[in-house]
């Protein structure tokens, strides 16, 4: 059977992450540049699960985790309304260009719409040019500059 005869890749399944997904979440966080252990990921997932304004979704293909997105909902004093903020979206390199990132975005956009939120923000490191092109291609526009200060007293 040649490559042309291979079955098409399975559709990704998007679901809420659970504490049992800690190994997968840790691996995906590492791919994004935020390494952590399985136990640290389990603690983080538990915090998200305990907060109804946070969401952590996992993408799976054939039962294997291949992507993840985190989003929180918060009140914006400047806007006088709630907004959504995507805090971490990643797709495993071997699953790129299969629509998984777009499916994850559509899922969090649906959650935001159901919560009657009209604005989603996402931050992306300046060095992630491919991610910036992806977000623009998905209808996201450039916004304000994002500044950080580490308080490592």
UniProtKB/TrEMBL annotation:
- Record has Transferase as a keyword: yes
Q: Where would I find the N-acetyltransferase domain in this sequence?
A: 12-153
Fetch the InterPro entries from UniProt: Acyl_CoA_acyltransferase, Bact_Acetyltransf, GNAT_dom
Pfam families this protein is in?
Answer: Acetyltransf_1
Q: Which UniProt keywords apply?
A: Acyltransferase, Transferase
Q: Which SUPFAM superfamilies match?
A: Acyl-CoA N-acyltransferases (Nat)
**GO MF term set:** acyltransferase activity, transferring groups other than amino-acyl groups
Superkingdom of source: Bacteria
Designated name of the protein:
GNAT family N-acetyltransferase
């Amino acid at each position: 059977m040649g490559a042309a005869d291979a079955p098409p890749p399975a559709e990704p399944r998007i679901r809420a992450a659970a504490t049992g997904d800690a190994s997968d979440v840790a691996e995906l966080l590492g791919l994004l540049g935020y390494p952590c252990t399985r136990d640290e990921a389990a603690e983080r997932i538990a915090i998200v699960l305990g907060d109804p304004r946070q969401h952590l979704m996992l993408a799976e293909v054939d039962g294997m985790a291949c992507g993840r997105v985190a989003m929180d909902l918060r009140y914006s004093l400047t806007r006088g309304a709630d907004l959504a903020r995507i805090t971490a979206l990643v797709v495993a390199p071997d699953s790129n260009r299969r629509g998984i990132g777009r499916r994850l975005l559509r899922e969090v956009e649906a959650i935001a719409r159901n919560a009657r939120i009209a604005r989603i923000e996402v931050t992306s490191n300046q060095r992630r040019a491919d991610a910036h092109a992806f977000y623009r291609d998905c209808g996201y526009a450039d916004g304000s500059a994002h500044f950080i200060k580490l308080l490592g007293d």
